[in-house]
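re: ur question from yesterday

yeah so i grabbed the chain u mentioned. its 124 aa long if i counted rite. heres the sequnce exactly as i have it in my notes:
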Amino acid sequence: MNVLEVNVLVLAYLGDTIYENYIRRYLISKNISNVNDLQVKATNYVSAKSQAAFIKKLLEEDFFTEEEISVIMRARNYKSKSHPKSCDIITYKYATGLEALIGYLDLVGNTSRIDEIMDRIVGV
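ran it thru and got these structure tokens back, copy pasting raw so excuse formatting
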């Protein structure tokens, strides 16, 4: 399978699960034992608005490689007719770019780079 030919929304679909799992594990490692508290804190990371802010910050810092930027931009520029009511289309596209990148990195087996990205996002 040529990962660069995989539909970016499929990459984002995979990346979303990896991203959310990472956030959940991170919050649990902080000894938060109340499920409601976990959910509230997770929202600070997993909302499209938060994901868009994280990726924009990392883009401004030139954190990503050219290859990674290519995946992000492919996802961001993908023609999509729908988006959640909770955010505008631009925010949604940036969030999709982050999720697609994580999905891409997983499929190419670069989990150490996913860890680097996620560590930056959670401030480790």
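noticed a couple things. The chain is about 70% helix and 0% strand. also Residues 3-122 form a domain with the Ribonuclease iii, N-terminal Endonuclease Domain; Chain A fold (CATH 1.10.1520.10).
anyway ttyl
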